[in-house]
Amino acid sequence: MLLTYQYKLNPTPQQVVTLEAWGELLRRHYNYALGQRLDWLNRTRSLLDRCSLVCEPIGEIPQKVDYYTQASDLKQTKELFPEYKNIYADCQQQNLMRLDKAWKRWLVPDKNGKRGGRPRFKKRGDICSFTFPRVNCAKAGTHLIGNALKLSKIGEVEVILHRPIPDGFEVKQATILKKADGWYVSFSLEDKTVPESLSIDEIKTATGIDVGLEKFLTTAQGQSIEVPQYYRKAQATLARQQRQLARKTKGSKNYQKQANKIALIHLRVARQRKEFHYQVAHWLVKSYDLIVFENLNIKGLARTRLAKSILDVAWGAFLQIMQAVAVRRGKHTRGVDPRKTSINCSGCGVRVEKTLAVRVHSCECGLVIDRDWNSALNLLKLGSVGLPIPGCGGLDISQPVKQQVSYVNLRCSRYIACN
């Protein structure tokens, strides 16, 4: 299993200038390579409604451009532009690999028939990271010795090791990236000690989770977590800072300083949200052996008038984190179709029509519970089919009619987030 540990760097002013120069040169080379590919594509294609006698490429048709042809041209690039000799060769190759992946995502559909967007030309400052593919080996351009990171053609950079790299983890590659508050390094670590997943017979506890905007999620046991709304709480501060930015002269130093203040606010919101997601994920994986969630079309939901709230809770990022934490702990996760889970009764299975404004599920069988709780019970029932798990049939009439949803307090849970 591959993990990523990120550490803060403390480069000297001269090293900062070198790192920024590398990013700018790699950006220009990325744009040139993308232009080569688009030129080849336009010269070797003709529109369906155009005759070749009317629409025909002008000039010599170039040969097909791919990663290998562009990587072989790096030697010529260094001869024409000597400043590229100061960049480590592997970083330039990784830059072209990044373009090649984006190009293939656009032209080649995945197993579901979906394709990515067309690669775009990068503006100044868009490329703020570069990768050293080898670390601590004979031909590596990066060596981590203690708290010093030795980079080829840059020198030794101090690393703030706020947590040690665990024993037995192999450092595969290092990515240098720039954020609003400084430079960081992300180490890709290979962990060979990941436990095997529990067998089906060993699963003893299971739950279903229903995500929402009123409550972040509700479990099949009736526990709910409030929505933190980090972005909503920061909106007033962001609006004030953005008004100050609008008064600055675009491109001036004061404009850049104010833009960096806004970037710091967004960075803080993103970190708060990520920390919250990890806390919830560790709590769920620690409590249950099987977690059933709903496969939502989050991109489609983000196009509605609730887009800001949906993007603020970031369900997709949370589900990815939860699945990664579950794999590391040997637990199981399962996604099911969410259709009709909030309409059907978890006790008797009867369809109970209700609008989104109705937050309480009330059935003729006598079951009156929270709407999200009812949906979580239905998700658990769908995800646990064929599993020897007791108590997955939902609530029935013999249980209390009116249920109160309890809220789990995840504050000050550093232990949960770190383990």
Automatic annotation (TrEMBL):
Residues 315-379 form the Cas12f1-like TNB domain. Residues 202-303 form the Probable transposase IS891/IS1136/IS1341 domain. Coiled coil: none annotated. Keywords: DNA recombination, DNA-binding, Metal-binding, Transposition, Zinc. Signal peptide: none annotated. InterPro entries: Cas12f1-like_TNB, Transposase, Transposase_put_HTH. Residues 1-44 form the Transposase putative helix-turn-helix domain. It holds the Pfam family Cas12f1-like_TNB. In the C-terminal section; belongs to the transposase 35 family. This is Transposase.
